[in-house]
Design goal:
This protein has ten helices and twelve strands. The protein has 252 residues and is of the alpha/beta class.
Length: 252
């Protein structure tokens, strides 16, 4: 079995790290460059940077901040937010990103996924999906969770895989910031339907929640923010715990 990955996420608004609940009620969580350096030193497997208001505000991701973060870490680095065209991807890769996360732009123009995969490789293209369970089932949202779409979670993830996405980053909006655990049933369904890695996001509150995401949700990686930013869970301790649960992780 491949090692499971632990991925801290930096949600960025106005150049600062923030964390909310159910995508609202944001609060300041620290300097993104310093947090990135700490997580890299602690043994995080990857880092995700999401400029959470870039699409809503119709602007580009902060290139200069991406450059500063990349200069301070030695782990793979995914950047998302405000990416609409191949030029945006090239700009961020040149700034130090290893992968690019697309969400709203891919829903509006699905062929963007294939364009990125063809030009830069599938491994560069991460499709981020923000979804909420509605009376009609799991529905995808865009613009940082502000706009509901007709896209259904599982069919959209499968289409993205077929178009060339290398990974799916699934955030349950219902679980985001609540710290009651990940959406493991939906994660397991994604894992069963897809042949590409699935990253769990939304709901981490305890070490056991990470364990459950890997065992019950069949996730390949688990992403979290607040529990790391506010020092409630330490990454080295988390990895040692997962080892005791028989879950393979990279320990430094």
């Amino acid at each position: 079995m491949l090692a499971k990955r632990i991925i801290p996420c930096l949600d960025i608004k106005d150049g600062q790290t923030v964390k909310g609940t159910n995508f609202v009620n944001l609060r300041h969580a620290g300097d993104p460059v310093e947090l990135a350096r700490v997580y890299s030193d602690q043994g995080a497997d990857e880092l995700v940077f999401l400029d959470i208001t870039a699409s809503f505000e119709k602007r580009k991701t902060f290139t200069e901040l991406v450059e500063r973060i990349a200069a301070n870490i030695n782990i793979p680095f995914t950047v998302g937010g405000g990416i609409h065209e191949l030029g945006d991807v090239e700009r961020l890769l040149n700034a130090g990103a290893d992968k690019i996360s697309v969400n709203s732009a891919a829903i509006r123009r699905p062929e963007l996924i294939g364009d990125i995969a063809r030009h830069f490789g599938s491994q560069v293209c991460v499709l981020a999906i923000d979804a909420r369970h509605t009376p009609s089932g799991w529905r995808c949202f865009l613009n940082g969770g502000r706009v509901e779409t007709e896209r259904e979670l599982f069919s959209w993830a499968y289409e993205a895989q077929e178009r060339g996405a290398g990974e799916i980053l699934f955030t349950s909006m219902d679980h985001d910031g609540v710290r009651n655990g990940y959406a493991n049933e939906a994660l397991a369904t994604l894992a069963d339907k897809l042949s590409i890695p699935v990253i769990a996001s939304g709901g981490a509150g305890t070490k056991e929640h990470f364990r459950d995401a890997f065992l019950d949700g069949k996730a390949d990686a688990a992403l979290a923010a607040g529990v790391f930013h506010f020092r409630e869970i330490n990454i080295p301790d988390l990895k040692l715990y997962l080892c005791t649960q028989g879950i393979p992780v990279r320990v430094v």
